[in-house]
Amino acid sequence: MKKLYLGVCALLSFSASFGQAFDYSPSQILHTELEYDTYSIVDIYMQTTDLSGITFAWETVENTIPEEWDYSLCDYTACFSGIPDDGIMTPIADAEMADGTKGFLKITITPNEFFGTGNVKFYVYNQADETEGDTIEFTFSLTGGVGLEEEVTGLSLYPNPASETLVLTNGSNVDLTYSVLDLSGKLISMGYVNADSKETVDVSALQPGIYFLRTEQNGTAILTEKIVIQ
Question: Which of 28, 35, 179, 186 is the most exposed place for a label (fewest CB within 10 A)?
Protein backbone atom coordinates (compact mmCIF):
# COMPACT_ATOMS: atom_id res chain seq x y z
CA MET A 1 0.00 0.00 0.00
CA LYS A 2 2.97 2.37 0.45
CA LYS A 3 3.49 2.25 -3.30
CA LEU A 4 -0.05 3.58 -3.71
CA TYR A 5 0.67 6.69 -1.67
CA LEU A 6 4.00 7.37 -3.35
CA GLY A 7 2.46 6.83 -6.76
CA VAL A 8 -0.26 9.42 -6.30
CA CYS A 9 1.77 12.13 -4.55
CA ALA A 10 2.55 13.91 -7.79
CA LEU A 11 -1.09 13.81 -8.85
CA LEU A 12 -2.19 15.13 -5.48
CA SER A 13 0.21 18.06 -5.59
CA PHE A 14 -0.94 18.86 -9.12
CA SER A 15 -4.61 18.65 -8.22
CA ALA A 16 -4.28 20.61 -4.95
CA SER A 17 -4.88 23.86 -6.75
CA PHE A 18 -8.26 22.52 -7.89
CA GLY A 19 -9.45 21.82 -4.34
CA GLN A 20 -9.65 18.79 -2.08
CA ALA A 21 -11.24 15.52 -3.14
CA PHE A 22 -13.76 15.33 -0.26
CA ASP A 23 -15.45 17.51 2.35
CA TYR A 24 -14.25 17.05 5.94
CA SER A 25 -15.62 17.88 9.37
CA PRO A 26 -14.52 19.32 11.67
CA SER A 27 -11.35 19.75 9.54
CA GLN A 28 -8.78 17.93 7.43
CA ILE A 29 -6.13 18.42 10.13
CA LEU A 30 -7.26 17.99 13.73
CA HIS A 31 -5.18 18.79 16.82
CA THR A 32 -6.08 17.48 20.29
CA GLU A 33 -4.63 18.45 23.67
CA LEU A 34 -4.75 15.26 25.70
CA GLU A 35 -5.49 14.95 29.40
CA TYR A 36 -3.23 13.16 31.84
CA ASP A 37 -4.06 9.45 32.07
CA THR A 38 -7.52 9.98 30.52
CA TYR A 39 -8.80 8.68 27.20
CA SER A 40 -9.85 11.01 24.40
CA ILE A 41 -11.92 10.22 21.31
CA VAL A 42 -11.32 12.30 18.18
CA ASP A 43 -12.70 11.80 14.69
CA ILE A 44 -12.67 13.27 11.21
CA TYR A 45 -15.75 12.73 9.06
CA MET A 46 -15.69 12.74 5.25
CA GLN A 47 -18.22 12.85 2.44
CA THR A 48 -18.15 13.35 -1.30
CA THR A 49 -18.53 16.94 -2.45
CA ASP A 50 -21.51 16.04 -4.68
CA LEU A 51 -23.01 13.64 -2.08
CA SER A 52 -22.63 10.67 -4.43
CA GLY A 53 -22.12 7.15 -3.10
CA ILE A 54 -18.59 5.89 -2.52
CA THR A 55 -16.43 3.22 -0.91
CA PHE A 56 -13.78 5.02 1.13
CA ALA A 57 -10.39 3.35 1.53
CA TRP A 58 -7.42 4.54 3.55
CA GLU A 59 -3.72 3.98 4.10
CA THR A 60 -1.63 4.91 7.13
CA VAL A 61 1.13 7.19 5.84
CA GLU A 62 2.77 8.12 9.15
CA ASN A 63 2.33 7.20 12.81
CA THR A 64 4.53 8.84 15.45
CA ILE A 65 2.33 8.17 18.51
CA PRO A 66 4.61 7.34 21.48
CA GLU A 67 4.76 3.62 22.21
CA GLU A 68 3.84 4.29 25.86
CA TRP A 69 0.39 5.56 24.82
CA ASP A 70 -2.58 3.26 24.22
CA TYR A 71 -4.64 3.87 21.11
CA SER A 72 -7.05 2.26 18.68
CA LEU A 73 -8.76 3.15 15.41
CA CYS A 74 -12.31 2.88 14.13
CA ASP A 75 -13.58 3.61 10.63
CA TYR A 76 -17.07 3.42 9.16
CA THR A 77 -18.31 0.05 10.58
CA ALA A 78 -14.99 -1.45 11.76
CA CYS A 79 -12.67 -1.04 14.78
CA PHE A 80 -9.06 -2.09 15.22
CA SER A 81 -6.57 -2.48 18.05
CA GLY A 82 -3.77 -0.06 17.30
CA ILE A 83 -3.63 1.48 13.83
CA PRO A 84 -3.34 -0.92 10.87
CA ASP A 85 -1.51 -0.12 7.64
CA ASP A 86 -4.70 0.23 5.60
CA GLY A 87 -8.39 -0.52 5.37
CA ILE A 88 -11.54 -0.32 3.27
CA MET A 89 -14.79 1.03 4.69
CA THR A 90 -18.26 -0.33 4.07
CA PRO A 91 -19.72 1.12 0.83
CA ILE A 92 -22.04 4.12 1.20
CA ALA A 93 -24.87 4.28 -1.36
CA ASP A 94 -26.03 7.47 -3.07
CA ALA A 95 -29.20 7.64 -0.95
CA GLU A 96 -27.26 7.05 2.29
CA MET A 97 -24.75 9.78 1.49
CA ALA A 98 -27.52 12.20 0.56
CA ASP A 99 -29.28 11.31 3.83
CA GLY A 100 -26.24 12.31 5.88
CA THR A 101 -24.18 9.12 6.20
CA LYS A 102 -20.46 9.88 6.25
CA GLY A 103 -17.26 7.93 6.30
CA PHE A 104 -14.95 8.60 9.24
CA LEU A 105 -11.70 7.77 10.99
CA LYS A 106 -11.86 7.85 14.78
CA ILE A 107 -8.93 7.48 17.17
CA THR A 108 -9.37 6.60 20.83
CA ILE A 109 -6.17 7.45 22.70
CA THR A 110 -4.87 7.34 26.27
CA PRO A 111 -1.44 8.88 27.01
CA ASN A 112 -1.23 7.10 30.37
CA GLU A 113 1.43 8.90 32.44
CA PHE A 114 3.74 9.82 29.57
CA PHE A 115 4.06 13.37 28.26
CA GLY A 116 4.88 13.95 24.62
CA THR A 117 3.48 14.55 21.15
CA GLY A 118 2.46 12.37 18.23
CA ASN A 119 0.65 12.48 14.93
CA VAL A 120 -1.01 10.11 12.49
CA LYS A 121 -1.44 10.81 8.77
CA PHE A 122 -3.79 8.88 6.51
CA TYR A 123 -4.32 8.94 2.77
CA VAL A 124 -8.09 8.65 2.30
CA TYR A 125 -9.29 7.86 -1.22
CA ASN A 126 -12.02 6.48 -3.45
CA GLN A 127 -11.50 2.73 -3.78
CA ALA A 128 -12.66 2.97 -7.39
CA ASP A 129 -10.08 5.67 -8.20
CA GLU A 130 -6.89 5.69 -6.12
CA THR A 131 -5.91 9.17 -7.35
CA GLU A 132 -9.11 10.68 -5.92
CA GLY A 133 -8.06 11.30 -2.35
CA ASP A 134 -6.51 13.53 0.29
CA THR A 135 -4.12 13.30 3.21
CA ILE A 136 -5.74 13.90 6.60
CA GLU A 137 -3.89 14.27 9.87
CA PHE A 138 -4.48 13.82 13.61
CA THR A 139 -2.02 15.52 15.97
CA PHE A 140 -1.82 15.01 19.73
CA SER A 141 0.09 16.50 22.62
CA LEU A 142 0.30 16.02 26.36
CA THR A 143 2.49 18.84 27.66
CA GLY A 144 1.15 19.23 31.17
CA GLY A 145 -1.71 18.29 33.39
CA VAL A 146 -2.81 17.04 36.74
CA GLY A 147 -2.37 13.48 37.88
CA LEU A 148 -4.42 11.64 40.42
CA GLU A 149 -5.89 13.82 43.11
CA GLU A 150 -3.69 13.46 46.14
CA GLU A 151 -6.21 11.54 48.21
CA VAL A 152 -7.13 9.13 45.39
CA THR A 153 -4.52 6.37 45.58
CA GLY A 154 -4.52 2.62 45.84
CA LEU A 155 -6.52 1.91 42.69
CA SER A 156 -5.90 -1.50 41.14
CA LEU A 157 -7.60 -3.80 38.66
CA TYR A 158 -7.14 -7.56 38.23
CA PRO A 159 -7.01 -9.98 36.52
CA ASN A 160 -6.08 -8.44 33.19
CA PRO A 161 -6.63 -10.15 30.74
CA ALA A 162 -9.96 -11.42 32.05
CA SER A 163 -12.84 -13.54 30.80
CA GLU A 164 -15.55 -13.53 33.49
CA THR A 165 -14.97 -10.86 36.14
CA LEU A 166 -12.62 -8.02 37.06
CA VAL A 167 -11.92 -6.91 40.61
CA LEU A 168 -11.59 -3.14 41.05
CA THR A 169 -9.91 -2.18 44.32
CA ASN A 170 -10.33 1.34 45.70
CA GLY A 171 -7.78 1.82 48.46
CA SER A 172 -8.54 5.53 48.80
CA ASN A 173 -10.83 7.35 51.22
CA VAL A 174 -13.24 8.63 48.53
CA ASP A 175 -16.10 6.95 46.67
CA LEU A 176 -15.61 6.48 42.93
CA THR A 177 -17.71 5.65 39.90
CA TYR A 178 -16.46 3.43 37.09
CA SER A 179 -17.50 2.83 33.51
CA VAL A 180 -16.57 0.18 30.92
CA LEU A 181 -16.22 1.44 27.34
CA ASP A 182 -15.45 -0.19 24.02
CA LEU A 183 -12.79 0.92 21.54
CA SER A 184 -15.09 3.53 20.01
CA GLY A 185 -15.83 5.03 23.45
CA LYS A 186 -19.35 3.60 23.68
CA LEU A 187 -20.53 3.05 27.26
CA ILE A 188 -21.00 -0.65 28.01
CA SER A 189 -21.69 -0.58 31.75
CA MET A 190 -21.10 1.52 34.84
CA GLY A 191 -21.19 1.24 38.61
CA TYR A 192 -19.73 2.40 41.92
CA VAL A 193 -16.84 1.37 44.14
CA ASN A 194 -16.91 2.75 47.66
CA ALA A 195 -13.90 4.07 49.56
CA ASP A 196 -11.54 1.41 50.91
CA SER A 197 -13.42 -1.44 49.25
CA LYS A 198 -13.52 -3.76 46.26
CA GLU A 199 -16.07 -4.15 43.48
CA THR A 200 -16.49 -7.13 41.16
CA VAL A 201 -17.16 -6.10 37.56
CA ASP A 202 -18.97 -8.68 35.42
CA VAL A 203 -17.44 -8.83 31.91
CA SER A 204 -18.70 -12.28 30.94
CA ALA A 205 -21.08 -10.87 28.30
CA LEU A 206 -18.36 -8.94 26.46
CA GLN A 207 -16.92 -10.18 23.19
CA PRO A 208 -13.15 -10.87 23.25
CA GLY A 209 -11.15 -7.74 22.55
CA ILE A 210 -9.84 -4.52 24.07
CA TYR A 211 -11.92 -2.23 26.27
CA PHE A 212 -11.33 0.61 28.74
CA LEU A 213 -12.29 0.89 32.40
CA ARG A 214 -12.52 4.49 33.57
CA THR A 215 -12.78 5.66 37.18
CA GLU A 216 -14.11 9.09 38.19
CA GLN A 217 -14.53 11.17 41.31
CA ASN A 218 -17.45 13.63 41.20
CA GLY A 219 -17.38 13.63 37.39
CA THR A 220 -13.59 14.18 37.17
CA ALA A 221 -11.62 11.40 35.45
CA ILE A 222 -9.10 9.79 37.78
CA LEU A 223 -7.69 6.84 35.90
CA THR A 224 -8.36 4.98 32.65
CA GLU A 225 -7.07 1.42 32.27
CA LYS A 226 -6.96 -0.69 29.11
CA ILE A 227 -8.51 -4.11 29.73
CA VAL A 228 -8.29 -7.21 27.58
CA ILE A 229 -11.22 -9.63 27.45
CA GLN A 230 -10.38 -13.17 26.34
Answer: 186
